[in-house]
């Protein structure tokens, strides 16, 4: 991962914007931002971001690679799409935020202990096992994400909810032991393996093929 | 029955705003026969609703008076008010125009004495003031209206008030039996000068125009500043009449926005700079004016005006397109957003918010009674396919008065060329 990061730095030494355009989902829209600020003002979580979207776009153009990719700003996006519907240029801001987060992860630059990244990884790992999300395991693992003490506390607090769900057959305690899978689990794993191969190929292409310069 | 003397050397001008008036007068003053068709009961269009012009801050009444005089003096000009073109048939040099005439219920005997209005009590929203005030059912559209004749609102026709108005008239000027009529006449060339309309601010949902009383549009603010306007020229809030000293101007309200109008409306930056001077003049040191903008588009000589307004200490520029306007319990609109110079989050209360609304064509894309090439915004293109139909002014693009008048003069020349060919003197 670290090597890929180094390779990208070498390749796009002069233009982080070009790197974003080539590697980030919907990244080619970044240059369309006219810095009006509607996205930042419309974000319901905006005040918790260290850099609002408008600033992120400006930083990309200003070549602030390190600061953007290690930022936790894009991880704060909750996909409410308020910015996208209001953007006068119809820039797909939400998608770019997720694209940036995804790219930062590929390069191994995700901030340590970033809760959204942590949750996403746990969700993914959980899903990969059985082709279904094991909600009980996912929930319990999140309770204990920050250590045994807070985990026990949260578990006790949430116990009545769990018991209620158990009683109404919305959840089974037996899920803790293995849990149920989809019908063709082998097929599912084959699909996922193939998808990951294709994705790896795609990423490798970016880091090898030189992009024509304007 | 209205009779129009016209031939295929006649030029038809559709729309009697500043552009249509200009095109009609310029053509008529070359000796051509011109029929000018205007939907409103008077000439001048939206220019009549402006308080001052930018950048000179002079009064539109001045130029309008000159044009009205030119119109009255010219025997080549036939003016039809309360009239709409419903159909055009034919080819360049040989058109047939069909025009629908709506009844004014007042004839040429009217001296504008106003006796009819004193006996009519029913009031309607005054369209001249964008509904910010009421006018009577028998009314002079505005003080300088040309023709200087009263109008009876069709909504009081058939009521006893209409009869009372008729009885009050000493000049036998009220004719309640007038009916709509349709006339057809030939013409050789057509100048299409149907102008623009302000973009519907209620469609810009986050700015709350439809639900916050103290959020107004720039065209409404223009009426508010006018001493002959709805508030006697006092810059006060519509909700409670308190002075509007702290005023926010929000630029690009509807313009340069793919959710609304794609184009830059060109006039709004200058309009807000101009309106900022209204507030500064009215409240001097107590004024607090903030202009929220993406970028100020004041080109050429307008840049001098921008510099002049920038030098007013009470005027501040904030580089930010606000995200939303909310309201506090006292009815103060609050402008919310993040600025681009430091990314500071703001939620600033104001007395009044003015939305600098964009310009869109007054005639919707599919409502032209004649085949015509329009661009994606609905403005008329200068296309050969339009034949002897030429756009003038705001119907062709978002233009200020100055550019509209220049454009209209050019359109008049085009029309003159067509009818000269009919006569056999052109090539």
Short account of what is shown:
With 214 residues, chain A is an all-alpha fold.
Structural features, described:
In chain A, about 60% of the residues lie in helices and about 0% in strands. Chain A has about 210 residues and is mainly α. The longest helix of chain A has 24 residues, at about 185-210. The radius of gyration of chain A is 20 Å and the shape is globular. The two termini of chain A are about 30 Å apart. Chain B folds into 3 domains: about 10-100 and about 180-195 and about 360-425, FAD/NAD(P)-binding domain (3-Layer(bba) Sandwich); about 115-170, no CATH class; about 200-360, FAD/NAD(P)-binding domain, CATH 3.50.50. Chain B is α/β, with parallel strands linked by helices. In chain B, strands 3-2-1-11-22 form a 5-stranded parallel beta sheet, covered by helices on one side. A 5-stranded parallel beta sheet of chain B has the order 13-20-14-15-16. The longest helix of chain B is centred in the C-terminal third of the chain and has 23 residues, at about 400-425. The interface between A and B is medium-sized, with 21 and 21 residues.
Rounded average pLDDT of chain A: 89
Runs of chain A in which pLDDT lies below 50 for 5 or more consecutive residues are 208-214
DSSP strand (E) fraction of chain B?
Answer: 15-25%
- Rg result of chain B: 23 Å
Sheet having the most strands of chain B? 5 strands, parallel
Count of discrete domains of chain A: 2
Low-confidence stretches of chain B: none
Helical segment tally of chain B?
8
Total strand segments of chain B: 22
Assembly state of the chains shown: heterodimer
CATH architecture of the largest domain in chain B: 3-Layer(bba) Sandwich
Give the helix proportion of chain A (percent range): 55-70%
**What count of helical segments of chain A does DSSP give?**
11
Largest sheet of chain A: none
Q: Could you report the average pLDDT of chain B, rounded to the nearest whole number?
A: 96
CATH topology of the largest domain in chain B: FAD/NAD(P)-binding domain
- Separation of termini of chain B? 38 Å
Going by CATH, what is the homologous superfamily of the largest domain in chain A? Alpha-helical ferredoxin
Helix and strand composition category of chain A: mainly alpha
CATH class of the largest domain in chain A: Mainly Alpha
């Amino acid at each position: 991962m670290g090597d890929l990061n180094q390779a990208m730095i070498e390749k796009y030494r002069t233009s982080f914007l070009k790197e974003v355009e080539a590697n980030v989902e919907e990244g080619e829209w970044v240059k369309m931002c006219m810095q009006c600020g509607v996205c930042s003002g419309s974000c319901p979580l905006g005040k918790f971001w260290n850099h609002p979207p408008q600033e992120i776009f400006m930083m990309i153009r200003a070549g602030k690679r390190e600061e953007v990719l290690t930022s936790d700003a894009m991880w704060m996006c909750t996909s409410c799409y308020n910015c996208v519907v209001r953007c006068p240029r119809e820039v797909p801001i939400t998608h770019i935020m997720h694209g940036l987060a995804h790219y930062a992860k590929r390069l191994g630059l995700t901030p340590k202990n970033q809760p959204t990244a942590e949750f996403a990884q746990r969700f993914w790992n959980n899903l990969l096992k059985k082709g279904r999300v094991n909600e009980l395991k996912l929930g319990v693992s999140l309770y204990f994400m920050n250590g045994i003490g807070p985990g026990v506390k949260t578990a006790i607090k949430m116990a009545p909810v769990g018991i209620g769900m158990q009683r109404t057959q919305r959840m089974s305690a037996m899920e803790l032991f293995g849990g149920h899978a989809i019908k063709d689990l082998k097929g599912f794993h084959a699909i996922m393996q193939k998808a990951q191969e294709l994705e790896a190929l795609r990423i490798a292409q970016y880091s090898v093929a030189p992009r024509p310069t304007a | 029955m209205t009779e129009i003397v016209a031939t295929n050397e006649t030029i038809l001008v559709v729309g009697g705003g500043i552009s249509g008036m200009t095109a009609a007068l310029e053509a008529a003053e070359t000796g051509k026969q011109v029929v000018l068709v205007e939907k409103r009961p008077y000439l001048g269009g939206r220019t009549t609703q402006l308080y001052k012009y930018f950048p000179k801050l002079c009064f539109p009444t001045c130029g309008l008076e000159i044009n009205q005089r030119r119109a009255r003096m010219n025997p080549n000009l036939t003016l039809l008010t309360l009239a709409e073109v419903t159909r055009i048939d034919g080819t360049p040099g040989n058109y047939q125009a069909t025009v629908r005439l709506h009844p004014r219920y007042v004839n040429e005997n009217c001296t504008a004495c106003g006796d009819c209005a004193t006996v009519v009590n029913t009031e309607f929203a005054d369209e001249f003031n964008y509904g910010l005030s009421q006018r009577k059912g028998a009314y002079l559209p505005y003080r300088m209206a040309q023709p200087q004749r009263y109008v009876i609102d069709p909504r009081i026709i058939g009521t006893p008030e209409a009869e009372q108005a008729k009885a009050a008239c000493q000049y036998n000027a009220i004719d309640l039996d007038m009916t709509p009529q349709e006339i057809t006449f030939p013409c050789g060339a057509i100048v299409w000068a149907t102008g623009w309309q302000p973009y519907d601010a209620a469609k810009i949902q986050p700015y709350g125009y439809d639900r916050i009383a103290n959020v107004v549009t720039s065209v409404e603010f223009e009426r508010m500043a006018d001493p002959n306007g709805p508030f006697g020229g006092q810059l006060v809030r519509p909700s409670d009449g308190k002075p509007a000293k702290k005023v926010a101007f929000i630029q690009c309200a509807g313009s340069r926005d793919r959710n609304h109008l794609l184009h830059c409306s060109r006039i709004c930056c200058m309009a807000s700079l101009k309106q900022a001077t209204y507030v500064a003049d009215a409240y001097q040191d107590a004024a607090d004016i903030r202009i929220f903008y993406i970028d100020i588009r004041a080109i050429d000589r307008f840049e001098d005006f921008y510099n002049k307004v920038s030098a007013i200490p009470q005027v501040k520029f904030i580089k930010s397109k606000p995200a939303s306007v909310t309201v506090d319990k006292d009815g103060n609109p609050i402008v919310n957003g993040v600025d681009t110079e430091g990314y500071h989050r703001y939620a600033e209360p104001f007395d009044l918010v003015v939305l600098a609304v964009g310009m869109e064509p007054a005639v919707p894309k599919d409502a032209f009674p004649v085949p015509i090439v329009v661009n994606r915004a609905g403005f008329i293109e200068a296309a050969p396919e339009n034949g002897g139909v030429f756009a003038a002014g705001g119907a062709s693009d978002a233009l200020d008065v100055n550019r509209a008048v220049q454009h209209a003069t050019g359109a008049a020349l085009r029309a003159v060329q067509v009818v000269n060919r009919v006569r056999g003197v052109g090539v």
